[in-house]
Specification:
Length: 355
């Protein structure tokens, strides 16, 4: 089956929420099920604004810097608990997500009321998992306690957002990126087993009320416009999706999968035959390349054929599926964003990048 829908993993490098929503709506008139606010402003570089908040807190002190192997980025700050401060007693500031999404929803509602955004499209909020801003930012001996403490603050922020917004019009995505670095041994992490990661992801899914759709972006990062590692196949992503599906008390409504843009090897997609998500779970694959000129002609059609072939062999069975980019569009040059949005429509209409 050809792709029939579009998913946005979060950030869009445009001036503000209204511009993001108008550009998406005008350039992709069908197939959009959830509308991002583009994570504009201080959220443009994913969790960096959280790390900046941590660096300004009296509960923490500098512990040097941390290099990120394999990416062209400056060293990151490394923090530790200040003397005499226990992780459970950290006084977290306003994390900023609930306030930003409450404001963005007002724009969404106005644009949906005037017909710019089609009826039935939901407003999508993106949150990092609790592990993401903590692991790698703090010294290892402080990480476990701080993840638990920060999780409480992050979940409270999410609860505030959900308390102020109509559940029938919203959806929540968890960005699962640092966990893949931990599983793969990327960014200098020692590899950890999947069983160590799954409970935290299941908690994230279960934190969302049953009347609000929840999804997970399975991400290999976009630091310095490259993945921390090019995945060899969809095997690990499928394992994570299966594990979370089995462990969570509620259904996960969508997963978005990383597909390196020129990847058209059938073996890359073969693990889809082992996918065990239920029929209610939407599947999105990163067939929208950031740099389409680097793709050999026919790549997208081959990718789509491989997806159909191997989904048809899985318990998930043959089903509709959709497209996305590998990560957000927050680090794409602003002038390239309209062309990238148009490419979503082109792939839906012609099933090929080059039309």
């Amino acid at each position: 089956m050809p792709p029939d829908s579009v998913h946005f993993n979060g950030s869009v490098n445009l001036p503000g929420t209204e511009t993001v929503m108008r550009e998406i709506s005008s350039r992709i008139p069908r197939g959009v099920r959830r509308m991002t606010d583009g994570e504009t402003g201080e959220r443009y570089y994913w969790i960096m604004f959280q790390v900046q908040k941590f660096a300004a807190m009296a509960d923490f002190q500098a512990a040097g810097t941390r290099e990120l192997p394999g990416v062209d980025l400056p060293p990151m700050p490394l923090l530790r608990l200040a003397d005499g401060v226990a992780a459970k007693n950290v006084r977290w500031p306003d994390l900023g997500y609930a306030a930003a999404y409450t404001d963005s929803y007002q724009v969404f509602r106005r644009l949906q009321d005037d017909g710019t955004i089609p009826a039935g499209v939901r407003f999508q909020m993106q949150y990092p998992t609790p592990v993401a801003p903590i692991a790698g930012t703090f010294v290892p001996e402080d990480t476990e306690g701080l993840v638990a403490s920060y999780q409480a603050a992050l979940f409270a922020d999410l609860d505030r957002a959900l308390a102020s917004l109509p559940h029938e019009q919203v959806a929540v995505q968890w960005d699962v990126a640092v966990e893949f670095a931990m599983l793969e041994g990327g960014f200098g992490f020692d590899p950890v087993p999947l069983g160590q990661i799954t409970p935290g992801l299941a908690r994230c899914a279960d934190q969302i009320p049953g009347d609000v759709p929840v999804g997970m972006h399975l991400c290999y990062g976009d630091a310095g416009h490259q993945h921390f590692k090019q995945p060899e196949s969809l095997a690990l992503q499928v394992q994570v999706a299966n594990a979370v599906t089995a462990a969570a008390r509620r259904p996960v409504n969508w997963f978005s999968f990383t597909v390196p843009q020129a990847q058209r090897d059938a073996d890359y997609f073969a693990p889809l035959a082992t996918l065990r998500t239920g029929p209610q779970t939407e599947l999105y694959f990163a067939l929208v390349p950031y740099y389409p000129a680097s793709q050999p002609a026919g790549t997208t059609a081959q990718q789509a054929a491989h997806i159909d072939t191997h989904l048809g062999k899985s318990l998930a069975g043959s089903r509709d599926w959709g497209i996305c980019t590998e990560c957000g569009m927050g680090r794409v040059q602003a002038g390239d964003v309209p062309t990238l949005l148009d490419l979503h429509r082109t792939i839906l209409d012609t099933h090929e990048v080059d039309g």
